[in-house]
Amino acid sequence: MAIAAKDTEVAIQQQLEQKEQLAKNMRDFFEATDTSGDGLLSSEEFHVILSNPKIKTWLSMMGLSLHE
Questions:
Q1: Rounded to an integer, what distance in angstroms lies between the CA atom of residue 6 and that of residue 52?
Q2: How many CB atoms lie within 10 A of CB 41?
Q3: Which of 5, 9, 50, 67 would you call most buried, defined as having the most Cβ atoms within 10 angstroms of its Cβ?
Q4: What is residue 52's DSSP assignment?
Q5: DSSP code of 40?
Q6: Calculated CA dihedral for residues 40, 27, 15, 56, nearest 10 degrees
Q7: For residue range 21-59, what is the model confidence (pLDDT) as tens digits?
Q8: For residue 59, how many other CB atoms are within 10 A of its CB?
Q9: Residue 8 reports pLDDT greater than 70
């Protein structure tokens, strides 16, 4: 029983670390996409970055699906 509890604890910790990494990746993405530097992502900035196929693939890898 102690082994199962430890496995669960490890799995929970890994899940939390993955969520933290995803949040960091998304912050980095939006900061890089904010070309005006105003702290906001305009529709134009968003559409420009989404025209890049590599960005679409990266977002897909992050678990985000894009629908036009």
A1: 43
A2: 16
A3: 50
A4: -
A5: S
A6: 90
A7: 989 988 888 888 888 999 988 999 888 888 888 888 888
A8: 17
A9: yes
- At residue 57, the pLDDT reads 87
Which two tokens mark 34?
């904010």
Distances (CA, A) of 30 to 4, 52, 54, 66: 39, 14, 15, 16
Q: Provide the pLDDT for residue 60.
A: 85
What does each C-alpha distance from 62 to 3, 32, 39, 52, 68 come to in angstroms? Answer: 31, 16, 22, 16, 18
Global pTM value: 0.63
**Helices 2-33 and 43-50, packing angle to 10 deg:** 110
Separation CA 21–CA 28 (nearest Å): 10
